[in-house]
Amino acid sequence: MAVTRIAAVAAHFGADIGRALDKITGIVERLGHDGVDLLVLPDASLGGYIGDLRNPDPTTGPEAIDSDGPEIRLLCRIAGAMTICVGYAELADGVRYNAAVCLTGDGVLGRHRKVHQPAGEHLAYAAGTQFSAFDTPVGRLGMLIDYDKTFPESARTLSLDGARTIAALSAWPASVTDRASRMPNDRQALLFDLYDQARAAENQIVLASSNQTGITGNLRFLGQAKIVGPGGDILAKTWSKGGLAVADIDIDAEVDRARRVLRHLEERRVDAYHNLTIDKSGHR
């Protein structure tokens, strides 16, 4: 039995990248002593997130860094044997992306640029174009960022690419249009949990969901980091304040057990899904 200890972080990360690196270093050192194998940090851990989702100012947004720059190299040095997923604003050929990187002490294992963009986020970032899984010391893994997990096709694509674990990194706020008086009753808080559980259950995979906490600009982040099993069951969870969701799971054994009778990926009827490649304008 190969048990993997997974930790998903709920914490506030602001605009100061140096401070964030110090904070992450402390987290990694402590969790390394606790035997954590996979650490999933929030979206925008390096540089923070935009402060206005409806009309962001691209000239005052988070500092964007190079995907192979000194910040990423530092994280590789401190990671050691731990597999770490972390979100940041990436600058490539003069274009900014909301991005995530997965790495260990041996280097970068995989990358993702956020594909789906809500509200006015396209004013601050360009969109990514693909979902790809990759091999890691904790098994084959894929990453989603924020709004990506709203779309079943995102996690399904990663699962069909062999991912048995999905790291869902978020800077997910409470509703900006219909905010509830209590965070647990907020519409986005309910959806955040629903999407995490649905994506895990429908693909029969393990999902580690991180999120920002606190306030940036006019956004109040939900927290609610969690580990979800392949049956959609929440194995560990935080609430609206900062914390760690930690669970020990034999990923292959649990995924295989979930797929023993009902095999969602194999039992798809792709011939019946005739309109999946039609875009919003009605064109294929």
Automatic annotation (TrEMBL):
Taking every annotated instance into account, which residue ranges of this chain make up the domain CN hydrolase?
A: 4-251
Q: Which domain of life is it from?
A: Bacteria
Keyword hit for Metal-binding: no
Q: Which one of the record's GO molecular function terms can you name?
A: hydrolase activity
Name the Pfam families for this protein.
CN_hydrolase
- Gene3D superfamilies this protein is in? Carbon-nitrogen hydrolase
What InterPro entries does its record include?
Aliph_Amidase/BUP (IPR050345), C-N_Hydrolase (IPR003010), C-N_Hydrolase_sf (IPR036526)
UniProt keyword annotation of Hydrolase present:
yes
User: Coiled-coil regions in this chain?
Assistant: none
Keyword line: Hydrolase
The protein depicted here goes by the name: Carbon-nitrogen hydrolase family protein
